[in-house]
Fold these 4 entries.
Entry 1:
Amino acid sequence: MSRRSARVATWLRARVATWLRARAYAGVTVVPSPDPLRLAVPKAYVVPAEG
């Protein structure tokens, strides 16, 4: 993962922690997605909570 991608992943992980504490989301994860230029780009998958 490139340095920029690593920073973005760190930022996303911090947001994930905040989202889960807010209990507005049932599940959140950050995964690397292949990218030909940067090797990997972090993506977040979010599942909203019911209600």
Entry 2:
Amino acid sequence: MKKQILVVGGAGYIGSHAAMALDAAGYDVLVFDNLSTGHADFLRFGRFENGDLADRAALDRVLESGDIRAIMHFAAFINVGESVSNPGKYYRNNLASTLNLLEAARDHGVGNIIFSSTCATYGTPQSLPLREDHPQHPINPYGRAKLAVEWMLRDFSSAYGLRCCIMRYFNAAGAAPASLGARIGERHDPETHLIPLVLRAAMHPGGKVGIFGTDYPTEDGTCIRDYIHVCDLAEAHVLAMERMLAGEPGTALNLGNGLGYSVREVVECVQEVTGLPVRVEYNPRRPGDAGILVGDASRAASELGWRPKFADLKTIVGSAYDWEKQLEHFKVENTYGRAGAEKCGENSEGKKHGFPRAASGPRNDRKLS
């Protein structure tokens, strides 16, 4: 009999790719989502139960519906700026509703949880690349709520024996290859992530994208971020789950490429991949944006045997471009993309401070160490 896995938030961007990876690996996938930010047309893998994490009765029903071996928890609001202006929304949904999930899992004997966290828990970098033992001092409610969940998970582990794997993402990007026929990708409303915004600026006549800050201590003056393909993220979740199902203890892992690309490099890459020009508007820095955010994912490589398969920026952008070409909504959306130096866990891109620009080929020479 197939092992049943509950994917909470499985109709969203990363959750739907994880559901696809689980289905491909032979698991019985059960998606739980309220579709407030997810998409019904992303429900292509396994079964679906419409419900909200705030509804304990709905959680009880879904957890009683089968022999669930593990939970992957992706359900959360992700707009950092909104978390500053409306923190209650983020503490209620991202923190309080997760407590509801953990208590339900405890009461129904589900002992394995993989949690979608973020590098936003680290706050302003004190050293680079960011490692899992870097101090965690988040600077916004989004990051603080995620860090509070990490604390809750550790406390539930100590009190009840819960095994948890905390996955701290850097900048998720790209989409499932069109060859898979999955028809899932990045579709946020509003969209805040750099790669789709730059692509839409290129694809829409008259479109333009804003770059915030050109005087950072980087080679071209724009911010640097670490991009990780969403399919690589999904694979890491499956590997982490299998590790726990085999009886291994919980852990916390960074998930990134260890490569950085600047905002300007992303714009250049989009122009190269699409063959289309991108109009850029330069703006002053935004408060709170770090110049460089790049992660060290060597622990994930060591503990999971995981390495990104789609680390090249051109591959990531190419998959996102294929996805964008399938969408119709970019034709009517606001053509002014407010992208730039994204906050950690949102968007930007990166290169690294003081690293030479490679003349050609992959940017593996730009790892921070």
Entry 3:
Amino acid sequence: MDLSRRNFVFLTACSTFSGLFALGEDAPWGNVSPFANVPLFGMENRGVSADELVEKMWKVSWERFWAPESHVFVDYLTSYAPGEYRKHLPTPEEVRRIFPNECGYGTGMEDGMIFAGAWLTAIVDRAKCESDLDVRAEMKRLAHEVFLGIHLAATVHSDPGFLARAVLPADGKSVYPNSSRDQYTHAVHGLWHYYRSPLCEGNEAEKEAIRKVLSLIADRMIRNVVPENDYDSLLLDGSRDTRGISRMWNVLAHEAARLPMIYAAAWDTCRESADPMRVKKAETYLSEYRKYAEKSVEQSLALDEKTLLRWVPTYALLQMQSSLELLWHLETDENVKAKLILGLERGFELAAARMQNADAYSKDLDMTFLFQDWRIQGGGIPWGTPIRRIWYSPRETGEAAMTQLMCPTKEFPAESREMLNRAILRIQPDRVATSGIFYLISAYWNLRAKEREQKKEKAALS
């Protein structure tokens, strides 16, 4: 999903602000359910725990939304019948004709790389929380599967480093020609966390493959994101993006840290390569990062109320937070690092109101709604409609929760915990057609992992 200037009407209601609620000392830790002390909500799922529902959503995601032919998750389902889940996806001929648009909006293929990043963080965090060796081995396999999708999206076409939104499962090679900074942001964020996780420990081949993808992306940014192109990363055919969603610099405040984040991830991974040429490239990536880093942080902190209300939906808030979080991990200058914390804390505060808004408008939505083929009038996930709200509702709650959980100086508020719980309990896993459940899954495991780490830190201090 990208911020199209003409499609923002539906999302402008997502910007009410409110106070925060601190998390008490009796919070559950470790392998205890993060919802152990939260009352159950929901009509269809009374008596069923959020933990059970998340596990069922996990299975449904991989059984129905995952297209193994091209290693990608799709945006929505149009059938609950086995073998029919994803029949609405475009044909190779439709993609070749760039139909219905250059981004594949509405077709089910618009957010594949965004999903890949969210899933990588979910898998990495779940692996941290699981003690069963078989489950951990399965997490390692799944992370590799998601990585294969990112690798394919970056290499299957004529311009290595262009990150296609998704590769068509029907032929394993067709892609729409326009990506976006949002796709790059989530994919790079997820790849870096995967690279630095225990799932990659001792697997030099996987690490080098990740370095290659990040290097291809960074090299293409260096070539294309220049003043002559108005800092546009360009379409697959090298033409300019008329929507403005591929511009990587001279952008709005919440988009400023995206480009330096890409260079930082490429530097941090490639400097460890056994290939001297890749190590040499890492020096270039560090130089590019330094060129933009401090300016991008200052611009992020200057996010004004007008821009926030008009141009920053919750998915963009999460992307800003993802960029700042990765930079916070890697930045060595203490002054810049302190500013990054300020940015992350502001993102934490802004996300609280977004979650309240999503919670309020989700109460009367039919989360079992089955989407129609996008070729039918009113089909797909059309902007500004109740259908779009059904599709986005659980996603927005998860995005807001993930935004808060990325802030290293804050604990997850009790109110946010309750709203996340409610969003999970609204879902009937066997009758859900929206990819928004991916974000509930990711938020759930992000929370489990954060609480596990906090428990270890408390134990070390006691």
Entry 4:
Amino acid sequence: MIKPTMMAPDFSADAFYLGNKITVQLSSYFQDWIILFFYASDFTFV
């Protein structure tokens, strides 16, 4: 389990940016403050 003081594991994911599909990698934002937001693709509540 990742705790608030721990670094998140590196990963890459597809994303849409300015209408284009790109691949982003967490390690490319190493020294920046970021917020990771994950959600179901259709926002369905289970």
